[in-house]
Predict the 3D structure of the following.
Amino acid sequence: MSMRCAVIGAGMAGILAVIKLREAGYDDLVVYEKADRVGGTWRENTYPGIACDVPSHAYSYSFELNPDWSHRFSPGPEIQAYFQGVADRHGVTERIRFGEELTSCAFRDGRWHLRTATGTTDVVDVVIAATGVLHHPNIPAFEGIETFEGAWFHSSRWDHSVPLDGRRVGVIGTGSTAVQITSALVERTAHFTLFQRTAQWVLPIDNPAFSDAEREDFRADPAGTRTLHDHLSRAFRDAFSHAVIDVNSPRLAEIEAECLRNLEQNVTDPDLRERLRPTYRAACKRLIASPDFYQKIQHPDAELVTAAIERIEPKGVRTADGVLHELDVLVSATGFRADRFVRPTTVTGRDGVDLDEVWRDGLLAYLSVAVPGFPNFFMLNGPNGPIGNFSLIDIAELQVGYILQLLEEIRAGRCREISPTWEATRNLEAERREAAVGTVWVTGCRSWYLDRDGIPASWTFTFDRFCDEMAAPKLEAYELIG
Ligand code: NAP
């Protein structure tokens, strides 16, 4: 049977989906992208210092290795250019309908009926939602924010018209984003204030530039570059994936020791060192990896504020100790709503059931790719999948391979509709929740990994199990109709 496929979103996962669908012979396909460029998170996030803390030779598609990465951890604009280049070279860009935000996606009469914000309609057989995990900014309602006389914005909506050099800049948050901003801005500003609610575990990393000779070597030796990619991917998985699901693992203890050494050796002022010392298990929140955060926060023009934010006033931030921190620019590096998968698109499955309804009591997906009652609708990096300190590209590649095998059931004429059964989904979810009790995410910290009930919205099993599950679908877990 011939199938028309729609991909939602032209970020890392959407580009990947199109390339792999076309390779597999699905040529009738369209991508709906709300913005005017590809890139997803790398398009949206343009804050100073943006980089990827997964090594670039691992944070690359396995089929599009890049010998030209400038650094071990390359900056965001370079990553954005990489995705743009891949999309252009693989004929993805021409399949994208830019400026078309999908508003609804409804399953009727065996097909998906799509509508975009501009009124465009389409009817397709398969939908792949590649809408990202961290997309919707979390903007706390700080009292008095509307009275602030300076410039104020969220880190993912950076206002590049606002001057920073020689000004007083404040950043709220100490996640990966805030730490990268700190490294980039401390030396540019007249005064830099970091508002920390929770101290972080900070893993030291080196970020050397690749020399011209090294890049030449990568170009001349694609097999060596592949070996490097595979080695780094494996090393990252080994380093983090077991540590997070077993709080007693030696690897987690090693990570903690390495972070503590970093703190002890690099922060000289005992008072500052104590304020920067985390009081929960490492990797409970996503680990910070930084070559120089501790050095930068000790700069004479930098200040770490640990008193709680009480309110925002016209001149700056008033903390609970009564101090007014005067600022020209205030950045909310306060993270994202990780529970907003696929939104704001309304997705209605079989019998008119709304995805929001299915997810009312918590996000649910079979192996993070599909939902019962939503036939031929798949997600990349969907709910409860592997997330953490490794490459989401690896995960998405495994998921695309899995989805293609499900699509083969339709193409081969063995069914017209495929969706996971409720039984398989509920059983796996019960098992996933049970396994969550041994993970580091539930050891007593607040993080975007946890859902509103405090259950980690992530893969709580081994990474090897995820690879095994993705290698070949268990068709008994699926309902095949038609
Ligand atoms: P985040 O990790 O969720 O951190 C948000 C920060 O804002 C936290 O420090 C949080 O404090 C603080 N915060 C939130 N609400 C607050 C409030 N009302 N008052 C005071 N502080 C508040 O967000 P992020 O730094 O944007 O990073 C999100 C994720 O994006 C990362 O975990 C990572 O997966 C990804 N990321 C990756 C890279 C990379 O290099 N690969 C770079 C940037 C981001 P608490 O800790 O107390 O909650």
In short: The chain has two domains: 5-136+337-481, 145-207+229-332. The pocket of NAP is lined by residues 51-54, 134, 140, 155, 172-178, 180, 197-198, 286, 309, 333-336, 446, 448 (CB under 6 Å).
